[in-house]
Amino acid sequence: MQLIVLQLVSSLAFGMLLFLLSAGFSLIFGVAKVANLAHGALYVLGAYLGYSVVQAGGPFWLGVVVATLGGAVLGVLADRLLLSRIQGQNLKQVLLTLGLTFVLSDAIRHIWGADTKSVSPPAPFDGPATVGGLIFPSYPLMLIVLGGAVFVAMRFVLRRTQAGAMIRAVTADPLMSGTLGLPVLRVSLLTFAAGIGLAAFGGAVGSPQLALTPTLDSTMTLFALIVVVIGGLGSIEGAFIAALLVGLVNGFGAVYFPAVAQMAVFALMILVIALRPQGLLGRRLGNA
């Protein structure tokens, strides 16, 4: 029972990291209509920025703030300097973000090297915690709570605030939103920055949970795509549920069926596509 519960906590923590990654991806696609294949690389960049702050003697949470702000700034620069020049050209945007992935990966390898690096959990989450007589590592529990808090905050902003109403309007019909006077380009830019910042935030807070390597970007991008396909494009709730499902399937599969663990994740995606092509909580194309 102890091992099962420990694996459950670890799998849910990984699922929360996938949510932080895929929520930003889904948000960007929903508003800016950009399939950002550099999302995994930006997640890894955020992790390395946080690592650098810790190595320089700064507190862990300062590294998280630096990584989040750095990711948001990079998102603004990428949108204004690169993606805005080919707006509406989906294939070129996909190829550009794919090229950006290679650039960021090589830059990370050049600056931080190719060796595996690790970050220690911050106090007071660097020791064990006892819950119901069972002993757990504290940091995965904190990640579960943090991911849940981010989900609640995102849902509140999108459903209960004026900014969220503008984002939903631009997502549903950017042309009509512009006609009604909404600043479509500004909403798109800020959403892009927020989505990238969320990915960098996930990388920074996930660095004590996942070892840092420059090749982690391809793995995280693949997981983000799987989560978004399962949950449904543009759905934060779908991304949350799908991230937890993928985390559980991947975590328990790696322990009990290591030979087919990755196959199980893809099988889950194929099953969802077969039953609901639009994803768990996505909308069918053409529906309002």
UniProtKB/TrEMBL annotation:
One Pfam family, please name it: BPD_transp_2
Spans through the membrane: 6-29, 36-54, 60-82, 94-114, 134-158, 179-202, 222-248, 255-275
Q: Where in the cell is it found?
A: Cell membrane
Q: Does the keyword field hold Transport?
A: yes
**What domain of life does the native source organism fall in?**
Bacteria
Bilayer topology reads: Multi-pass membrane protein
Keyword annotations:
Amino-acid transport, Cell membrane, Membrane, Transmembrane, Transmembrane helix, Transport
**Stretches of the chain forming a coiled coil according to its record:** none
Q: Which InterPro entries match?
A: ABC_transp_permease (IPR001851), BCAA_transport_permease (IPR052157)
- What family, per the record? Belongs to the binding-protein-dependent transport system permease family. LivHM subfamily.
Name of protein: Branched-chain amino acid ABC transporter permease
Q: Which organism is it from?
A: Deinococcus petrolearius
